[in-house]
């Protein structure tokens, strides 16, 4: 690749690093083209799976202000640029790696933090944002239902007590 072509690629990669909410580094050695296409399809339209030379990735990451990925950029590397929920992308990579042993997740970068392979695996074990919001909504709904029952119980008991006293007085009279 000639120098001007490399500069164009570095500029594109730098822009991808800047626009991504998270980045995962993988080793793709041993994956076939159909397997990589399948992975790209599973990751979705908002996520890109890019293969380039490690030197170009290093330069682009540095220009984008991301430090700490150099030691992970060894061997044949591909970078997953994630826009949106990076937990879902981590889960997709984890599940794909279970069925395709050739894919190795080396680490990643999300929310200003560099993660090694184990950290990226732990990200995949987290619940996604929609799951957490659903749990929160369920907890709030449960709390509100308990409060509604409590507030409804007091007047109901008072009415039953007054009704029982009235019946008792009617029988006594």
Give a structural overview:
The chain is an alpha+beta fold and 173 residues long. It is 61% helix and 16% strand. A 5-stranded antiparallel sheet has the order 2-3-1-4-5, with helices on both faces.
Structural class by sheet pairing and helices: alpha+beta
Secondary structure tally, helices: 6
Low-confidence residue ranges: none
How much strand?
15-25%
Strand order, main sheet: write it out. Answer: 2-3-1-4-5
Distance between the termini: 107 Å
Overall body shape: rod-shaped
Rg from alpha-carbon coordinates = 28 Å
The tally of strands reads 5
Q: How is the main sheet built?
A: 5 strands, antiparallel
Helix content: 55-70%
Mean pLDDT: 84
Q: Secondary-structure element sequence?
A: HEHEHEHEEHH
How is the topology of this model organized?
Elements: H1 3-19, E1 22-27, H2 33-43, E2 47-51, H3 54-63, E3 77-82, H4 86-99, E4 104-110, E5 113-116, H5 117-125, H6 129-172
Antiparallel strand pairs: 1-3, 1-4, 2-3, 4-5
Helix pairs in contact: 1-3, 4-5
At a glance:
With 173 residues, the chain is of the alpha+beta class. It has helices at residues 3-19, 33-43, 54-63, 86-99, 117-125, 129-172, and strands at residues 22-27, 47-51, 77-82, 104-110, 113-116.
